[in-house]
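Objective 1b of the project was to move from sequence-level analysis to a structural picture of ligand recognition. The entry below was assembled by the postdoctoral researcher (A.K.) and checked by the PI before modelling. It contains the amino acid sequence of the target and the SMILES of the bound compound, glutathione.
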Amino acid sequence: MTTENAPSENKLVLRYWNCAGRGMLMRYMAYDAGLDFTDDIVDIDEDFLGGTWESKKKYMPELAGPFKALPVVQHNGSTINETGACAQYIAEIAGYMPNSPIDRAKVIMICDHIYEDILINISYALWGFRDWDRDVIGGFAGPTSGLPLKFVNLENVLAENAGGFAIGNGVSMADFAIFYIVDILTQRMLEVESGPQAVKLLFGDKPFIAAHQEMMKARPNMSKYRSSAQWKKYGPYLSGKGVMGNRTHELELGETELEGIETLASKLVTCLE
Ligand SMILES: N[C@@H](CCC(=O)N[C@@H](CS)C(=O)NCC(=O)O)C(=O)O
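Corresponding predicted holo structure:
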């Protein structure tokens, strides 16, 4: 068993399921910075499907925090819930938050845009809780104001900052957030039929995002982590459904992650072609 799920004392612990989901942003920063931490995994099969999460682990504050969900960060006797708070804490101790209040606000602006307007909409649509057309591809202003516009926004952020970083002249949490969302979507879409065309249409006209991806991938600790056995345990799966593969049907959890990604990719092709 890879899971430690040990209550922490002083050591830094990052705890999340064995998928990328809400956990990868904090993980990327912790590995990149070479922090001394435990990358603790709660297992989807054993704990979520097996029932120990719901019957026990969820209600252990030292494991699932005061809010009874993951991700969790623990350090020096404190336990933090909420993706944004966990990621920001790691960014602070890793040195990936700028000093000036306005730059800090810009970093949060980019991360919230990615989390709230891209990642969560896609993840919830994969579970059937949100609608692909209305909540992912579309938006309040019409059929292409959702996901396609969000990536235009990210391209513009990078285009407007000469140094190649999202904000200022050094790497920040915003760079890891941009890297993660573009990378996981590209990876997953390239595994489905309409994916290559969708990737081309969504990212092919965005040279600043492309250069930024290469820069982030080439960071030595990122490259080492992304080729590690640890990354392979969870890095390829956008959501918990990814870990379940084809079993989602027999488990009565609906479409597989890749079936959902094919829906997303084919809708992107239709709206962007
Ligand atoms: N608002 C929280 C939501 C956290 C959340 O719902 N996490 C999911 C996994 S991605 C979870 O642990 N669900 C199990 C449960 O709620 O019992 C955040 O942004 O971190």
